[in-house]
Amino acid sequence: MDETGVNDTSELVVRTDALTKRYGDRVAVDRVSMTVRRGEVYGFLGHNGAGKTTTLRMVLGLVRPTAGRATVLGRPAGRADVTGRVGALVEGPGFYPYLSGRDNLRSLARYRHLPRAEVERVLDLVDLTGRGDDAYKGYSLGMKQRLGVAAALLGDPELVILDEPTNGLDPTGMADMRELVVSLARDGRTVVLSSHLLTEVQEICDRVGIIDHGRLLREAAVADLRGGITVRVRATPRDTALAVASRLAGPDGVRPLPDGALGVDLPASAAPDLTRALVAAGADVHEVAPSERTLEEVFFEMTASAADPSTRATTNTAAAATRTKEPVS
Asked: For residue 127, what are the CA distances in angstroms to 142, 161, 172, 184?
């Protein structure tokens, strides 16, 4: 077993070692070492400007790293014998506006010496067969995004890298895209998914990497990051609730949640004892219930603790906003 925790390094489809990219004095990606295993859906998470896209572009060989290296399918990133085995949608699709969706894909297929049947296969996968003859310039944002995913799937690649694939899709389209991503992994492909929709990532990803200010903060299984079932508490006065919870769970076992409640690292079976202790301390108890931390909560906690003091307040505000609307992008 190597330092990545993988018994056989051939299981690693993507591996970066201290991957770094500088633009003048600005460090966009700072010594990122990440691993993506064969057959998994890997979520790559970070705020805008965190370094996600630059990292993915280095993995694809589109950007030369300042230092470090990226290996894809056992070969250096960007090599010709690798690029044909990788499909990608990064920073939105780009197509000829006056060609139809089908003709745009045919142009790509001819360049790669793929049969026309391959175009029909990927159009069907993204549910665009019926609109394939429409001009690309008339497509909605969601249709353009689906055509970009179709282009990434041409040639049946072993590794698929998708940057915000559900951007512009309606709820039905988002559900269909999630199912497509899961089916790709189920059929033996490896998927790297960058998304701002953390509930989506929580549903379909096996492992995630969280990047902030160019640094990889954590890489782990989604279940390990969420940490299992804890206890959620809402009681007033909040200071009293915090003191009681800290006495039972320890000062490091209590964390404020964005909606004003407390997350307490105790097993669900301890909820009655916690309730009695709160009442004995004179607190008004509004809620004590088993709770599972969401990936969204973990993400904002990690990025807030890693942020500079000047940016932490903004991050905490964004965390609170996610309780009532989609994650802030």
From this structure: 11, 19, 12, 15
